[in-house]
Amino acid sequence: MTTHQALRCGILGFGYLGRPLAQKIYEQGGAVSALKRRISSDDVNLPLDLEAADLNDPAVFQTAFWQRWADKTTWFCLLPPSALQDYAGTLRRWLALAEQSGVQHIVLTGSTSVYGERARLCDEHTPPEPQTEAARQILAAEALFWASRIPHIDILRLGGLYCAERHPVSRLSGRGRLGGGARPVNMLHRDLAVEALFQTALNPQGKRLRNIVEPAHPTRAEFYTAEAAKLGLSAPDFDPADRTDGKIVTSLYA
């Protein structure tokens, strides 16, 4: 088993998940190289190797900073499809770079959106039913990773992410007659997502797929009402006449 002192990681996407993940790895004695689109004032003097580049430019993969990733045994891809003009194409080039560098372990964050919206119980054996272009792009990227020559691949399909600083309830606060209040949620607090990513990096074991979702599945009305109260926001008003059901995503693994 890898120890956290030995973790040497590259992080593609130094943002909502990448920054706290890098901090956790550093605090546990690891080393991090990370890439983001542009450097901000918050990034100055961070204790890691941080570079800014536009991944939409194919020439980015010929730049010298990737040499500093070559000694990193685990690479993370935390970018959503919305971050790239050609999601699968860009990740294909990044994967080729990883293979050339002899990377042993890659962790890709996906999404439970690949299961679609049909009401059913979904686990890792459930066939995907993507209904959005983003979900279809995620599935295409997953296929690339499965087919790669990297010996250890982990695909983590994350539930809906939230935390106090960036919470989806802020967009719903005070709104009325919202639909889907009876549908169950498949949520994941950012802290739990970061912990799952960290633990996955510690234990490479071949090619694996995992759903990472909180075990509780309250209705949307219950979840967002409770979360609004925690944050001191006005609760959204869901239409009680809308009783449509939705999927519940679980995992077969601890």
UniProtKB/TrEMBL annotation:
- Please list every transmembrane segment annotated in the UniProt record, as residue ranges: none
Q: What InterPro entries does this protein map onto?
A: NAD(P)-bd_dom_sf, NAD(P)-dependent_oxidoreduct
Give GO terms: molecular function aspect only.
aldehyde dehydrogenase (NAD+) activity
- Which GO cellular component term is one of those annotated? cytoplasm
What is the protein's name according to its record? NAD-dependent epimerase/dehydratase domain-containing protein
